[in-house]
Amino acid sequence: MKHRITLIPGDGIGPEIAASVVRIIEASGVAVEWETHYAGAQALEKFGETLPQALLDSVTRNKVALKGPVTTPIGKGFTSVNVGLRKALDLYANLRPIRALPNVPCRYPELDLVIVRENTESLYAGLEHVVVPGVVESLKIITEKASTRIARFAFEYSQREGRKKITCGHKANIMKLSDGLFLDCFRKVAAEYPDIEADDKIIDNACMQLVMRPEQFDVMLLENLYGDIVSDLCAGLIGGLGLVPGANIGEKGAMFEAVHGSAPDIAGQGIANPTALLQSGILMLRHIGEREAADRTESAMLQVFIDGKVRTKDIGGTANTAEFANEIIAQMK
Ligand code: ATP
Predict the structure, then answer these.
(1) Hey, what domains does the chain have and what are their CATH numbers?
(2) pTM, entire model
(3) For 44, 165, 262, 289, which has the most beta carbons within 10 A of its beta carbon?
């Protein structure tokens, strides 16, 4: 069976890592017809809009997308395409497995935790306006509906994957209404899942605990902005942003993308680590039912890490993006 998948290569290092990941996925034996679409600055230049309707139609039709990073201009310019896509397709759950890889120098080689991030609300939605010159307002919207939905997602996911404990990170001592509601919804849903331990931590303390004793966490449930920040923190615990994958999941479809951004500092050099996007691709293969291809790809990737000879610069190696991809493909032959 041939899968039709929307491919958004993105910009910065996006096209470089996406090209390698597409080659690896195809080498795994799975038949894919890619529908390639541009987003962000590239789309603005070509089609006059950052999120073309044709792209949204493609993802809606195919129900699955693999996406490279798309740059969001800082301080000015267009609003985030990443946020726009998640909103337009109602991809409300963002799943980020944080797992150390063999031989990658890092602080916590045994770490294995999962971040479940609410993907549609909170300050990350970017609802801001100027009240009067010199005064701006940023709206933190938290709803019972979205908070309950993401808490249920976290518990269902944990039950399915055999995870034992969920820690909800919040600042309900200060933001008593917004984070208070998020925490309340978590506790209500937790009562329906007595087999899974439900814990909560104030987010600043959770960050300190993550750095000092991350093994106490299993699944972390976070609202949108905390999820964004804590994901990068956790990437740092296991060796950096080049490694951590992500899945954005909704009722109508799923979009798989790395946690990292477009890394403009190394773009165009062909040296980026494609592992984060590759691991997102492996999650995608499992999502579309291609378990064997996913396992084959994952084993080949892990073998390359175990051998430790071919690795990219960010994790102490000298290989470029394509050489690393070639090594994984060679493992699958
Ligand atoms: P955004 O705000 O778009 O999420 P960010 O602030 O997370 O972006 P990144 O673009 O992810 O920033 O880059 C942060 C740092 O991590 C940069 O120094 C970048 O070179 C490095 N980095 C990110 N992704 C990779 C990768 N795949 N391979 C190697 N280095 C990477």
Answers:
(1) 1-93+241-333 (3.40.718.10), 112-237 (3.40.718.10)
(2) 0.91
(3) 262
Distance of CA 325 to the CA centre of its chain: 21
**How far, in Å, CA of 285 to CA of 273, rounded?**
20
Give, using CA atoms, the residue closest to atom 8 of ligand 1.
261
CA atoms of 299 and 288, how far apart (whole Å):
18
Q: What would the pLDDT profile of 303-325 be if each residue is shown by its tens digit?
A: 999 999 999 999 999 999 999 99
How far is residue 330's CA from residue 32's CA, in Å, rounded to a whole number?
20
Q: Which residues contact 330 (CB under 8 A, 6 or more apart)?
A: none
Could you tell me which of 97, 4, 60, 34 has the C-alpha nearest to residue 250?
Answer: 60
Q: Any catalytic annotation for residue 228? A: yes
Q: Which of 241, 243, 324 to mutate to test the pocket of ligand 1 (most atoms within 8 A of CB)?
A: 241
Alpha carbon distance 168, 127 (integer Å)? 24
For the chain, helix, strand, coil in percent to 5 are 45, 20, 40
- For residue 177, the CA-to-ligand 1 centroid distance in Å is 34
Which is the catalytic residue, given 57, 90, 145, 204?
204
Concerning whether 184 is annotated as a catalytic residue, the answer is no
Cβ neighbours, 10 Å, residue 257: 27
- Tens-place pLDDT, residues 57-109: 999 999 999 999 998 877 777 778 888 888 888 899 999 999 999 999 899 99
Question: Which alpha helices (DSSP H) does 28-143 contain, by range?
Answer: 41-47, 53-62, 81-88
- Write the single-letter amino acid at 22: V
Which residues share a beta bridge with 114?
97, 219
Q: What single-letter DSSP state applies at residue 257?
A: E
In angstroms, what is the span from residue 261 Cα to ligand 1's centroid? 5
In the block, residue with structure tokens 């009562």: 191
The pair of three-digit structure tokens given for residue 37, joined into one six-digit string: 């679409």
Active site residue 38: no
What single DSSP character describes residue 55?
H
For residue 14, what is the enclosing H or E element? Answer: helix 14-27
Distance CA 289, CA 306 (A): 27
Q: Which residue carries 């309707």 as its tokens?
A: 53
